[in-house]
Design brief:
By secondary structure, the chain is mainly alpha-helical. The protein has a domain of 25 residues. It contains three helices and no strands. The model has no long low-confidence stretch (mean pLDDT 87). Keywords: Membrane, Transmembrane, Transmembrane helix. This is TIM23 translocase. It comes from Motacilla alba. It is found in: Membrane.
């Protein structure tokens, strides 16, 4: 059969645009950052408290490290994804084209802005 599976409004695209994908990108980066940060916090917490006996203070210290690192990484990756998505949407709307040049330009501008703040 040569018919489409989904009913689309007249003039609608079959693929999601950059603006719709921005929400998925930002949310996915926040979740990935939180997971990676939590694992990193667990590693750091276990390393820093290795000389302590298993007790409530050790558990609290490990949990504090997990939540601190999880929030830090989620915030960092979410901010980068927000910048990347915003640059991508603005460039696409400005150029009126949807191609790989938008992706390259958005990534370059995001990296330049991130590095311009003096972070390593």
């Amino acid at each position: 059969q040569d018919t489409d599976e989904f009913i689309l409004p007249t003039g609608a695209n079959k693929t999601r645009g950059r603006f719709e994908l921005a929400f998925f990108t930002i949310g996915g980066c926040c979740m990935t950052g939180a997971a990676f940060g939590a694992l990193n916090g667990l590693r750091l917490g276990l390393k820093e408290t290795q000389n302590m006996a298993w007790s409530k203070p050790r558990n609290v210290q490990i949990l504090n490290m997990v939540t601190r690192q999880g929030a830090l990484w989620a915030n960092t990756l979410g901010s980068l994804a927000l910048l990347y998505s915003a640059f991508g949407v603005v460039i696409e709307k400005t150029r009126g084209a949807e191609d790989d040049l938008n992706t390259i330009a958005a990534g370059t501008l995001t990296g330049m802005l991130y590095k311009s703040t003096g972070r390593v």
